[in-house]
Specification:
By secondary structure, this protein is α/β, with parallel strands linked by helices. The chain has helices at 3-58, 75-90, 107-118, 146-164, 180-186, 202-209, 219-222, 225-246, 257-267, 283-286, 313-326, 345-360, 375-383, 399-407, 417-423, 439-451, 454-467, 473-489, and strands at 62-66, 95-100, 127-130, 169-172, 190-195, 251-254, 273-275, 299-304, 334-340, 367-371, 387-389, 410-414, 434-436. Helix 2 (75-90) packs across helix 18, helix 8 packs across helix 9 and helix 11 crosses helix 16 (439-451).
């Protein structure tokens, strides 16, 4: 037998073998697909029967908010309570539910906390569904592949929420986009989302591509071109999945122009996406008259931000140290006040590390920490502040920035994100605050603000206060109700 004939027989045998192996695999894949489709259809039917039974029992539709940290004291929680208040006032025959992971508290205590921190009282009670597995979305659980881990964890947490209570309308108010397809396709719900900050953004991709170390990009990755390239691939793949999940939203609301640009690029749903500026309690500060601060013997520099790594409190402390080094003659008259909420033990540990940094820099007697304080104390601090300080890179919006401006503090914020694009912009051509982006520029700006005459500071404070009326609770409620009208109108059909 010729060599080429032998080779042909071998190839034919190999093809026959591969076919005999491939055909059962194809049958198996087809069978598994059919089983999966039937399973999904069965689960969907089961959940919809649960919703129908609940509708028949309660005689009213239900709207559910997914907010696992609703008992925290940040700007995202203020959005939740203002949104609930607006919907309750508009829709009298609808019940409202909040999915929360807060344990060890009652619904009454959560509502009391909202009133104490934000001065918000809901017109009617809401039902709380207490989720047991919030740990699945904690960043500390995933030391590596944190974004992917938290997103997968949110799906499991969302499944727990969906099986506990099947709503008619589902609103994700914390940015867990991967729960949207779960509630839409399995729960059969109308779904909407309020996005404070995109889970992944083109800016984050740029940080990795440029091998620039930041709080979410470790030094050992930024210094290694191979690991950086792999992380770019990982981020791109994750961005694709995030975009597909987010595009399931029937209505998408974003909190700023910066967030809008990223969500439009990732979710690609311009017809269903709009900007709804978050509610800022500006009116609570406007009753305090603005006066020249020339008679002040001391100046307080106040920061309002949850104690999370991206808020970059370290930058505030180090910049304050540089300011004191430049102004030794008045250092005893300057105090840095860090106000914020602690959500969990991780945040509390971060506060301990910040206290250690203050001790290391010799600032223990010049920096005050105020954790989870009530609204009235927050108001006193802001109205008595000379400078309002903000240092988060690419802050999605910046409710604390707006509150500082409304309270009459001269704002100094990071030169990026919402503060740069939406908030600290000229009012009638006049400046409303200052921007900076590193330790030196922050120290320079603080020194410049303190060096202004009281009359000059007063003029900036007046312009800032006039400019923030567009961020009031009333403006938010009107915009939020208009945006959610397509979701809520379906309840009446």
């Amino acid at each position: 037998m010729a060599a080429h004939d032998h080779l042909s027989l071998c190839l034919c045998d190999l093809i026959r073998l591969l076919w005999t192996l491939l055909l059962p695999c194809l049958y198996l894949c087809l069978l598994l697909t059919v089983i999966l489709v039937l399973l999904v259809m069965g689960v969907r039917m089961w959940l919809q029967r649960a919703r129908s039974a609940r509708r028949a029992r309660e005689q009213c539709p239900a709207v559910a908010f997914f907010h696992p940290y609703c008992n925290a004291g940040g700007g995202g929680e203020r959005v939740l309570w203002c949104a609930l208040r607006a919907l309750q006032n508009r829709y009298q025959d609808v019940s409202f539910v909040v999915y929360t992971g807060d344990q060890g508290v009652t619904g009454e205590q959560i509502l009391e906390g909202a009133q104490r921190r934000f001065d918000i009282r809901l017109p009617r009670p809401v039902r709380f569904v207490f989720l047991k597995h919030r740990l699945l979305v904690e960043a500390a659980v995933y030391p590596h592949f944190t974004l992917l881990g938290q997103s997968v964890g949110s799906v499991f947490l969302g499944w727990e929420a969906l099986t506990e209570f099947v709503p008619d309308v589902y609103l994700d108010s914390m940015g867990y986009a991967f729960t949207l397809p779960l509630f839409r396709y399995l729960g059969g719900c109308r779904v909407g989302s309020y996005v404070h900050y995109p889970t992944v953004s083109t800016d984050m991709l740029a940080v990795v591509r440029e091998r620039n170390p930041r709080f979410n990009h470790a030094d050992f990755i930024s210094s290694n071109p191979v690991l950086s390239a792999l992380k770019v691939v990982y981020y791109c793949a994750f961005a694709l999945m995030y975009g597909l999940a987010g595009s399931c939203s029937h209505v998408a609301m974003v909190n700023s122009s910066w967030t809008l640009g990223h969500i439009l690029a990732l979710w690609r749903a311009p017809g269903r996406t709009c900007v709804v500026y978050p509610p800022c309690d500006v009116h609570s500060f406007l009753d305090v008259p603005l006066e020249e601060d020339g008679d002040r013997k001391s100046h307080r520099l106040v920061s309002v931000a949850q104690f999370r790594p991206e808020k970059d409190h370290r930058l505030q402390i180090r910049s304050f140290r540089k300011l004191l080094d430049r102004t030794r003659t008045v250092r005893e008259a300057l105090t840095l006040v860090l106000i914020g909420g602690c959500r969990n033990e991780e945040d509390e540990e971060r506060v301990l590390m910040l206290r250690g940094l203050c001790l290391e820099l010799g600032l223990a007697d010049r920096v005050e920490f105020k954790l989870n304080i009530p609204f009235e104390e927050l108001k006193r601090e802001l109205t008595g502040a000379t400078i309002g300080l903000h240092t988060m890179w690419n802050e999605h919006f910046g409710i604390g920035v707006v509150e500082c401006m409304a309270a009459g503090a001269v704002i100094l914020a990071h030169k990026s994100g919402g503060p740069k694009l939406d908030i600290i912009i000229p009012h009638d051509g006049q400046p409303t605050g200052f921007l900076a982006d590193d330790e030196d520029s922050y120290a320079d700006a603080m020194e410049r603000i303190l060096g202004l005459t009281p009359a000059s500071r007063l003029e900036i404070r007046r312009n800032a206060r006039l400019s923030v009326a567009r961020f009031s609770d009333q403006e938010f409620e009107a915009s939020f109700l208009a945006a959610t009208e397509p979701l809520m109108s379906d309840l009446e059909r």
